[in-house]
Amino acid sequence: MKKSLVYALMLLFSTSALQAHDTICDKDIQKLKKEIKKLKKELIKVKKHDAKDNLKLSADHRTAMDRIEYKSASGKKYKNNALLSNRFWIDLAYRPLSNTIFRAKLSYYKAYGATPLSPATHMPQRAMGYDKFDWVINENLTDGELRVREAYWLYYGKDLFGTGIDWTASLGRRPSTNGFLVSMRDDDKPNSPLGHTINMEFDGASFKLDLEKLSDINGMYIKACYGRGVSNAKARFSRDGADYSKEFGALKDVDLAGFIFVPYNDGQYEVMSTYYRGWNLPGFLDNSGDLKSLGSIEGAGVSLLIDSVGNGINATLDSMKLFASIAYSKTHPDSGKAMLGSGSDKSGTSYYVGANWDCLFVDDARVGVEYNHGSKYWRSFTYGEDTLIGSKLAARGDAYEIFWTMQINKAFSFQARWTKIAYDYTGSQGFFGMSGTPMSMTQAQKAGLDPIKDAQDIRLYLRYRY
Fold first, then answer.
1. Global pTM?
2. Other CB atoms within 10 A of residue 352 CB
3. Which range marks the domain in which residue 167 is found?
4. Based on the domain organization, do 31 and 96 belong to the same domain?
5. Is 347 exposed, middle or buried (0-12, 13-18, 19+ CB in 10 A)?
Protein backbone atom coordinates (compact mmCIF):
# COMPACT_ATOMS: atom_id res chain seq x y z
CA MET A 1 0.00 0.00 0.00
CA LYS A 2 2.79 2.40 0.98
CA LYS A 3 4.72 1.46 -2.15
CA SER A 4 1.65 2.06 -4.34
CA LEU A 5 1.16 5.48 -2.71
CA VAL A 6 4.80 6.38 -3.27
CA TYR A 7 4.57 5.34 -6.93
CA ALA A 8 1.38 7.34 -7.36
CA LEU A 9 2.96 10.46 -5.87
CA MET A 10 6.06 10.04 -8.02
CA LEU A 11 3.95 9.69 -11.16
CA LEU A 12 1.85 12.76 -10.25
CA PHE A 13 4.96 14.83 -9.60
CA SER A 14 6.58 13.72 -12.84
CA THR A 15 3.47 14.52 -14.88
CA SER A 16 3.16 17.96 -13.28
CA ALA A 17 6.83 18.66 -13.91
CA LEU A 18 6.54 17.64 -17.55
CA GLN A 19 3.45 19.83 -18.01
CA ALA A 20 5.28 22.77 -16.47
CA HIS A 21 8.29 22.07 -18.68
CA ASP A 22 6.07 21.96 -21.76
CA THR A 23 4.52 25.29 -20.78
CA ILE A 24 7.97 26.83 -20.36
CA CYS A 25 9.11 25.35 -23.69
CA ASP A 26 6.04 26.72 -25.48
CA LYS A 27 6.74 30.18 -24.13
CA ASP A 28 10.42 29.95 -25.13
CA ILE A 29 9.54 28.69 -28.60
CA GLN A 30 7.09 31.53 -29.19
CA LYS A 31 9.71 33.99 -28.00
CA LEU A 32 12.32 32.45 -30.31
CA LYS A 33 9.92 32.59 -33.25
CA LYS A 34 9.42 36.32 -32.69
CA GLU A 35 13.19 36.84 -32.52
CA ILE A 36 13.75 34.84 -35.72
CA LYS A 37 11.04 36.82 -37.50
CA LYS A 38 12.70 40.05 -36.41
CA LEU A 39 16.12 38.81 -37.58
CA LYS A 40 14.67 37.87 -40.97
CA LYS A 41 13.36 41.40 -41.43
CA GLU A 42 16.76 42.80 -40.56
CA LEU A 43 18.46 40.36 -42.93
CA ILE A 44 16.18 41.41 -45.78
CA LYS A 45 17.07 45.03 -45.12
CA VAL A 46 20.77 44.19 -45.19
CA LYS A 47 20.40 42.24 -48.45
CA LYS A 48 18.54 45.12 -50.09
CA HIS A 49 21.22 47.51 -48.92
CA ASP A 50 24.02 45.26 -50.17
CA ALA A 51 22.32 44.80 -53.53
CA LYS A 52 22.59 48.53 -54.09
CA ASP A 53 25.96 49.22 -52.55
CA ASN A 54 28.02 46.20 -53.59
CA LEU A 55 30.28 46.39 -56.61
CA LYS A 56 29.96 43.09 -58.49
CA LEU A 57 33.18 41.76 -60.02
CA SER A 58 33.84 39.01 -62.54
CA ALA A 59 36.96 37.91 -64.39
CA ASP A 60 37.69 36.58 -67.88
CA HIS A 61 41.21 35.37 -68.72
CA ARG A 62 42.16 33.89 -72.08
CA THR A 63 45.58 32.52 -73.02
CA ALA A 64 45.91 31.86 -76.75
CA MET A 65 48.38 30.68 -79.34
CA ASP A 66 47.89 31.81 -82.95
CA ARG A 67 49.66 30.58 -86.02
CA ILE A 68 49.18 33.26 -88.66
CA GLU A 69 50.27 33.26 -92.30
CA TYR A 70 49.94 35.76 -95.14
CA LYS A 71 50.50 35.01 -98.82
CA SER A 72 51.00 37.83 -101.32
CA ALA A 73 49.85 37.94 -104.93
CA SER A 74 53.38 37.05 -106.08
CA GLY A 75 53.54 34.05 -103.75
CA LYS A 76 55.62 35.52 -100.90
CA LYS A 77 54.76 34.21 -97.45
CA TYR A 78 54.88 35.96 -94.07
CA LYS A 79 54.47 33.77 -90.98
CA ASN A 80 54.33 33.76 -87.21
CA ASN A 81 54.20 30.14 -86.06
CA ALA A 82 53.55 30.83 -82.37
CA LEU A 83 52.05 34.19 -81.48
CA LEU A 84 51.28 33.83 -77.77
CA SER A 85 48.88 36.26 -76.09
CA ASN A 86 47.16 36.98 -72.79
CA ARG A 87 43.78 38.71 -72.62
CA PHE A 88 42.37 39.63 -69.23
CA TRP A 89 39.03 41.35 -68.66
CA ILE A 90 37.58 42.58 -65.37
CA ASP A 91 33.84 43.25 -65.43
CA LEU A 92 32.31 45.61 -62.90
CA ALA A 93 28.63 46.22 -62.17
CA TYR A 94 27.01 48.50 -59.61
CA ARG A 95 23.33 49.28 -58.97
CA PRO A 96 22.99 52.63 -57.14
CA LEU A 97 19.22 52.66 -57.74
CA SER A 98 16.68 49.92 -58.38
CA ASN A 99 16.29 51.05 -62.01
CA THR A 100 19.87 52.16 -62.77
CA ILE A 101 22.99 50.08 -63.39
CA PHE A 102 26.59 51.11 -63.99
CA ARG A 103 28.74 48.68 -65.97
CA ALA A 104 32.40 48.71 -66.93
CA LYS A 105 34.99 46.39 -68.46
CA LEU A 106 38.73 46.85 -67.97
CA SER A 107 40.96 45.21 -70.54
CA TYR A 108 44.55 43.93 -70.67
CA TYR A 109 45.62 42.32 -73.94
CA LYS A 110 49.19 41.81 -75.11
CA ALA A 111 51.57 39.40 -76.74
CA TYR A 112 53.98 37.38 -74.64
CA GLY A 113 57.29 39.17 -74.23
CA ALA A 114 58.46 42.60 -75.37
CA THR A 115 57.37 43.69 -78.84
CA PRO A 116 59.96 45.34 -81.12
CA LEU A 117 60.64 49.02 -80.49
CA SER A 118 60.13 51.63 -83.16
CA PRO A 119 63.49 53.45 -83.61
CA ALA A 120 61.80 56.62 -84.87
CA THR A 121 59.57 56.81 -81.81
CA HIS A 122 61.52 55.35 -78.90
CA MET A 123 65.24 55.32 -79.56
CA PRO A 124 65.97 59.08 -79.12
CA GLN A 125 64.11 59.30 -75.81
CA ARG A 126 64.20 57.67 -72.40
CA ALA A 127 67.61 56.03 -72.38
CA MET A 128 67.25 54.87 -75.99
CA GLY A 129 63.79 53.44 -75.23
CA TYR A 130 65.00 50.42 -73.28
CA ASP A 131 62.69 51.20 -70.33
CA LYS A 132 59.91 49.74 -72.47
CA PHE A 133 61.30 46.21 -72.21
CA ASP A 134 59.00 43.76 -70.42
CA TRP A 135 61.96 42.65 -68.31
CA VAL A 136 61.62 45.73 -66.09
CA ILE A 137 58.32 47.36 -67.04
CA ASN A 138 56.58 46.80 -63.68
CA GLU A 139 59.50 48.14 -61.70
CA ASN A 140 59.94 51.33 -63.73
CA LEU A 141 58.34 54.72 -63.12
CA THR A 142 56.86 54.97 -66.62
CA ASP A 143 53.63 56.46 -67.89
CA GLY A 144 50.85 54.13 -66.73
CA GLU A 145 48.07 53.02 -69.08
CA LEU A 146 44.70 51.57 -68.17
CA ARG A 147 42.44 50.46 -71.00
CA VAL A 148 38.73 50.93 -70.44
CA ARG A 149 36.79 48.77 -72.88
CA GLU A 150 33.35 49.70 -71.55
CA ALA A 151 31.98 52.22 -69.03
CA TYR A 152 28.32 53.25 -69.24
CA TRP A 153 25.08 53.88 -67.38
CA LEU A 154 21.96 51.85 -68.13
CA TYR A 155 18.53 53.10 -67.02
CA TYR A 156 15.37 50.93 -67.02
CA GLY A 157 12.12 52.84 -67.47
CA LYS A 158 8.50 51.73 -67.20
CA ASP A 159 5.29 52.88 -68.90
CA LEU A 160 6.70 55.64 -71.15
CA PHE A 161 4.28 58.63 -71.03
CA GLY A 162 1.47 56.30 -69.99
CA THR A 163 1.72 54.17 -73.13
CA GLY A 164 2.64 50.96 -71.30
CA ILE A 165 5.96 50.80 -73.20
CA ASP A 166 9.02 49.76 -71.21
CA TRP A 167 12.24 51.50 -72.22
CA THR A 168 15.96 51.72 -71.52
CA ALA A 169 18.57 54.41 -72.05
CA SER A 170 22.34 54.19 -71.81
CA LEU A 171 25.21 56.66 -71.97
CA GLY A 172 28.99 56.24 -72.00
CA ARG A 173 31.49 53.86 -73.62
CA ARG A 174 28.98 51.26 -74.68
CA PRO A 175 29.34 47.53 -75.49
CA SER A 176 29.55 47.93 -79.29
CA THR A 177 31.82 44.98 -80.16
CA ASN A 178 31.11 41.25 -80.38
CA GLY A 179 27.48 41.74 -81.37
CA PHE A 180 24.67 39.59 -82.73
CA LEU A 181 25.85 36.48 -84.69
CA VAL A 182 29.59 37.27 -84.34
CA SER A 183 29.49 36.51 -80.61
CA MET A 184 28.72 32.83 -81.20
CA ARG A 185 32.13 31.91 -82.60
CA ASP A 186 33.72 33.80 -79.66
CA ASP A 187 31.56 31.84 -77.18
CA ASP A 188 30.07 35.02 -75.71
CA LYS A 189 26.67 36.59 -75.17
CA PRO A 190 25.85 39.11 -77.93
CA ASN A 191 26.37 42.82 -77.31
CA SER A 192 24.28 45.60 -78.79
CA PRO A 193 25.07 45.94 -82.52
CA LEU A 194 24.48 43.75 -85.54
CA GLY A 195 27.96 42.22 -85.78
CA HIS A 196 27.87 41.87 -89.57
CA THR A 197 28.04 45.66 -90.06
CA ILE A 198 29.42 47.18 -86.82
CA ASN A 199 32.06 45.71 -84.53
CA MET A 200 34.17 48.49 -83.05
CA GLU A 201 34.48 50.50 -79.85
CA PHE A 202 32.44 53.71 -79.62
CA ASP A 203 31.49 56.31 -77.04
CA GLY A 204 27.86 57.31 -77.24
CA ALA A 205 24.27 56.74 -76.19
CA SER A 206 21.26 54.57 -76.95
CA PHE A 207 17.51 54.67 -76.40
CA LYS A 208 15.44 51.49 -76.66
CA LEU A 209 11.65 51.02 -76.80
CA ASP A 210 10.21 47.59 -75.96
CA LEU A 211 7.25 47.20 -78.35
CA GLU A 212 6.23 43.66 -77.35
CA LYS A 213 3.30 44.68 -75.14
CA LEU A 214 2.08 47.31 -77.55
CA SER A 215 2.26 45.12 -80.67
CA ASP A 216 1.64 41.72 -79.04
CA ILE A 217 4.57 40.41 -81.13
CA ASN A 218 7.26 38.40 -79.34
CA GLY A 219 10.47 40.29 -78.66
CA MET A 220 9.77 43.33 -80.84
CA TYR A 221 11.84 46.44 -80.05
CA ILE A 222 13.50 49.43 -81.67
CA LYS A 223 16.72 51.09 -80.53
CA ALA A 224 18.27 54.40 -81.59
CA CYS A 225 22.06 54.69 -81.19
CA TYR A 226 24.57 57.51 -81.52
CA GLY A 227 28.35 57.34 -81.23
CA ARG A 228 31.45 59.48 -81.67
CA GLY A 229 34.46 57.67 -83.07
CA VAL A 230 36.92 60.56 -83.36
CA SER A 231 36.94 64.00 -81.74
CA ASN A 232 38.84 66.82 -83.42
CA ALA A 233 39.47 68.63 -80.11
CA LYS A 234 43.09 69.54 -79.47
CA ALA A 235 44.82 68.13 -76.43
CA ARG A 236 45.63 70.37 -73.50
CA PHE A 237 48.97 72.23 -73.67
CA SER A 238 48.99 71.81 -77.45
CA ARG A 239 51.72 73.81 -79.21
CA ASP A 240 49.48 75.71 -81.61
CA GLY A 241 46.13 77.12 -80.56
CA ALA A 242 43.88 77.09 -77.50
CA ASP A 243 43.45 73.92 -75.46
CA TYR A 244 40.48 71.74 -76.53
CA SER A 245 39.66 74.02 -79.46
CA LYS A 246 38.01 72.45 -82.49
CA GLU A 247 40.90 73.17 -84.85
CA PHE A 248 42.59 69.85 -85.49
CA GLY A 249 43.77 70.17 -89.05
CA ALA A 250 41.52 68.73 -91.73
CA LEU A 251 39.95 66.03 -89.53
CA LYS A 252 36.46 66.76 -88.20
CA ASP A 253 34.40 64.94 -85.56
CA VAL A 254 33.54 61.44 -86.79
CA ASP A 255 29.99 60.63 -85.73
CA LEU A 256 27.72 57.68 -86.39
CA ALA A 257 23.98 57.27 -85.76
CA GLY A 258 21.65 54.41 -86.49
CA PHE A 259 18.63 52.29 -85.64
CA ILE A 260 18.29 48.66 -84.64
CA PHE A 261 14.88 47.07 -85.22
CA VAL A 262 13.95 43.58 -84.03
CA PRO A 263 10.56 42.67 -85.55
CA TYR A 264 10.39 39.23 -83.96
CA ASN A 265 12.17 37.12 -81.33
CA ASP A 266 10.48 34.18 -79.63
CA GLY A 267 13.68 32.55 -78.38
CA GLN A 268 13.88 30.16 -81.32
CA TYR A 269 13.51 32.54 -84.27
CA GLU A 270 15.10 35.98 -84.10
CA VAL A 271 15.26 38.65 -86.78
CA MET A 272 17.45 41.76 -86.35
CA SER A 273 17.84 44.65 -88.77
CA THR A 274 19.87 47.85 -88.70
CA TYR A 275 20.45 51.09 -90.61
CA TYR A 276 23.24 53.57 -89.88
CA ARG A 277 24.83 56.74 -91.22
CA GLY A 278 28.36 57.97 -90.52
CA TRP A 279 29.77 61.47 -91.14
CA ASN A 280 33.25 62.87 -91.77
CA LEU A 281 34.88 59.50 -92.34
CA PRO A 282 38.71 59.67 -92.27
CA GLY A 283 41.21 58.55 -94.85
CA PHE A 284 44.43 59.34 -96.70
CA LEU A 285 44.28 61.31 -99.95
CA ASP A 286 48.03 61.14 -100.54
CA ASN A 287 51.23 59.77 -99.03
CA SER A 288 51.66 62.61 -96.52
CA GLY A 289 50.33 60.46 -93.69
CA ASP A 290 47.70 63.02 -92.67
CA LEU A 291 44.15 61.83 -92.14
CA LYS A 292 41.45 64.01 -93.66
CA SER A 293 37.64 64.05 -93.51
CA LEU A 294 36.38 62.72 -96.83
CA GLY A 295 32.61 62.28 -96.67
CA SER A 296 29.81 60.14 -95.26
CA ILE A 297 28.69 56.53 -95.48
CA GLU A 298 25.44 54.67 -94.96
CA GLY A 299 24.77 51.00 -94.41
CA ALA A 300 22.11 48.50 -93.49
CA GLY A 301 21.70 44.82 -92.74
CA VAL A 302 19.17 42.18 -91.78
CA SER A 303 19.94 38.89 -90.01
CA LEU A 304 18.00 35.75 -89.11
CA LEU A 305 18.96 33.31 -86.35
CA ILE A 306 17.25 29.96 -85.82
CA ASP A 307 18.11 28.64 -82.37
CA SER A 308 17.37 24.89 -82.46
CA VAL A 309 16.51 23.88 -86.01
CA GLY A 310 14.84 20.64 -84.97
CA ASN A 311 12.41 19.66 -82.24
CA GLY A 312 12.77 16.01 -81.28
CA ILE A 313 14.23 15.09 -84.70
CA ASN A 314 17.77 14.15 -83.68
CA ALA A 315 20.51 15.41 -81.36
CA THR A 316 22.31 17.38 -84.07
CA LEU A 317 19.33 19.29 -85.47
CA ASP A 318 17.79 19.84 -82.04
CA SER A 319 20.98 21.58 -80.86
CA MET A 320 21.79 23.38 -84.11
CA LYS A 321 21.90 27.17 -84.46
CA LEU A 322 21.57 28.31 -88.06
CA PHE A 323 21.90 31.90 -89.29
CA ALA A 324 22.03 34.04 -92.41
CA SER A 325 22.69 37.76 -92.86
CA ILE A 326 22.93 40.24 -95.73
CA ALA A 327 24.25 43.81 -95.60
CA TYR A 328 25.14 46.75 -97.85
CA SER A 329 27.24 49.93 -97.65
CA LYS A 330 27.30 53.11 -99.75
CA THR A 331 29.85 55.94 -99.68
CA HIS A 332 29.03 59.63 -100.28
CA PRO A 333 32.26 61.61 -100.92
CA ASP A 334 32.36 65.34 -100.23
CA SER A 335 32.71 67.61 -103.24
CA GLY A 336 36.20 67.44 -104.70
CA LYS A 337 37.24 64.45 -102.54
CA ALA A 338 37.45 60.71 -103.09
CA MET A 339 36.33 57.78 -100.95
CA LEU A 340 37.57 54.26 -101.66
CA GLY A 341 39.46 55.71 -104.63
CA SER A 342 36.40 57.26 -106.29
CA GLY A 343 34.86 60.73 -106.34
CA SER A 344 31.37 59.27 -106.83
CA ASP A 345 29.08 57.16 -104.64
CA LYS A 346 30.04 53.49 -104.47
CA SER A 347 27.92 50.61 -103.12
CA GLY A 348 29.02 47.27 -101.75
CA THR A 349 27.30 44.16 -100.43
CA SER A 350 28.13 41.25 -98.14
CA TYR A 351 26.43 38.04 -97.11
CA TYR A 352 27.23 35.92 -94.05
CA VAL A 353 25.98 32.42 -93.13
CA GLY A 354 26.85 29.89 -90.47
CA ALA A 355 25.81 27.03 -88.20
CA ASN A 356 26.95 25.46 -84.94
CA TRP A 357 25.76 22.40 -83.04
CA ASP A 358 26.58 19.99 -80.20
CA CYS A 359 29.57 17.78 -80.91
CA LEU A 360 28.53 14.14 -81.41
CA PHE A 361 31.71 12.66 -79.96
CA VAL A 362 32.54 14.88 -76.97
CA ASP A 363 30.16 16.02 -74.24
CA ASP A 364 29.82 19.76 -73.52
CA ALA A 365 31.43 20.71 -76.84
CA ARG A 366 30.14 22.53 -79.93
CA VAL A 367 31.23 22.62 -83.57
CA GLY A 368 30.72 25.63 -85.82
CA VAL A 369 31.23 26.64 -89.45
CA GLU A 370 30.89 30.13 -90.95
CA TYR A 371 31.29 31.74 -94.38
CA ASN A 372 31.05 35.31 -95.63
CA HIS A 373 31.61 37.11 -98.93
CA GLY A 374 32.11 40.81 -99.69
CA SER A 375 31.92 42.64 -103.02
CA LYS A 376 34.41 45.09 -104.60
CA TYR A 377 33.27 48.22 -102.73
CA TRP A 378 32.05 46.58 -99.51
CA ARG A 379 33.06 48.55 -96.40
CA SER A 380 32.09 47.56 -92.86
CA PHE A 381 32.79 49.04 -89.42
CA THR A 382 34.28 45.80 -88.09
CA TYR A 383 37.79 46.96 -87.20
CA GLY A 384 37.37 45.64 -83.63
CA GLU A 385 36.75 42.04 -84.68
CA ASP A 386 38.87 39.62 -82.64
CA THR A 387 40.83 38.03 -85.50
CA LEU A 388 44.58 38.67 -85.56
CA ILE A 389 44.85 38.52 -89.36
CA GLY A 390 42.23 41.26 -89.74
CA SER A 391 38.44 41.44 -89.82
CA LYS A 392 37.03 38.52 -91.78
CA LEU A 393 33.69 40.34 -92.17
CA ALA A 394 35.45 43.24 -93.90
CA ALA A 395 36.82 40.93 -96.61
CA ARG A 396 36.31 41.84 -100.24
CA GLY A 397 36.37 38.22 -101.21
CA ASP A 398 35.67 35.01 -99.32
CA ALA A 399 36.23 34.08 -95.67
CA TYR A 400 35.89 30.63 -94.13
CA GLU A 401 35.91 29.62 -90.47
CA ILE A 402 35.67 26.39 -88.47
CA PHE A 403 35.73 26.24 -84.67
CA TRP A 404 35.39 23.64 -81.90
CA THR A 405 34.66 24.81 -78.35
CA MET A 406 34.62 22.55 -75.29
CA GLN A 407 33.38 23.54 -71.84
CA ILE A 408 35.80 21.69 -69.56
CA ASN A 409 33.89 22.67 -66.42
CA LYS A 410 31.84 25.64 -65.26
CA ALA A 411 34.81 28.01 -65.38
CA PHE A 412 37.24 26.59 -67.97
CA SER A 413 36.81 26.25 -71.73
CA PHE A 414 39.01 25.36 -74.68
CA GLN A 415 38.70 26.34 -78.33
CA ALA A 416 40.41 25.44 -81.58
CA ARG A 417 39.63 27.78 -84.50
CA TRP A 418 40.74 28.11 -88.12
CA THR A 419 40.07 31.26 -90.14
CA LYS A 420 40.98 31.79 -93.79
CA ILE A 421 40.45 34.90 -95.92
CA ALA A 422 40.88 34.89 -99.71
CA TYR A 423 40.89 38.46 -101.03
CA ASP A 424 39.54 39.31 -104.48
CA TYR A 425 40.34 43.01 -104.10
CA THR A 426 42.76 45.16 -102.09
CA GLY A 427 41.76 47.66 -99.40
CA SER A 428 39.58 45.41 -97.24
CA GLN A 429 41.29 46.49 -94.00
CA GLY A 430 41.88 50.13 -95.01
CA PHE A 431 40.18 53.39 -94.07
CA PHE A 432 37.98 55.39 -96.43
CA GLY A 433 40.56 57.13 -98.62
CA MET A 434 43.25 55.83 -100.97
CA SER A 435 44.11 52.94 -98.62
CA GLY A 436 40.60 51.58 -99.22
CA THR A 437 40.83 51.65 -103.02
CA PRO A 438 39.78 48.26 -104.44
CA MET A 439 42.08 46.73 -107.06
CA SER A 440 42.14 43.19 -108.29
CA MET A 441 45.32 41.22 -107.64
CA THR A 442 46.27 41.58 -111.31
CA GLN A 443 45.67 45.35 -111.33
CA ALA A 444 47.70 45.79 -108.15
CA GLN A 445 50.65 43.85 -109.54
CA LYS A 446 50.59 45.87 -112.76
CA ALA A 447 50.77 48.99 -110.58
CA GLY A 448 53.95 47.63 -108.98
CA LEU A 449 52.28 46.41 -105.77
CA ASP A 450 52.35 43.00 -104.14
CA PRO A 451 49.19 42.90 -102.01
CA ILE A 452 48.11 40.17 -99.60
CA LYS A 453 46.01 37.62 -101.43
CA ASP A 454 45.38 35.05 -98.69
CA ALA A 455 45.52 35.12 -94.89
CA GLN A 456 44.89 32.42 -92.33
CA ASP A 457 44.92 32.09 -88.56
CA ILE A 458 44.91 28.89 -86.49
CA ARG A 459 44.06 29.70 -82.86
CA LEU A 460 44.10 27.54 -79.74
CA TYR A 461 42.98 29.02 -76.45
CA LEU A 462 42.29 28.14 -72.82
CA ARG A 463 39.79 30.45 -71.14
CA TYR A 464 38.78 31.00 -67.53
CA ARG A 465 35.60 32.88 -66.60
CA TYR A 466 34.29 33.49 -63.14
1. 0.84
2. 24
3. 54-465
4. no
5. middle
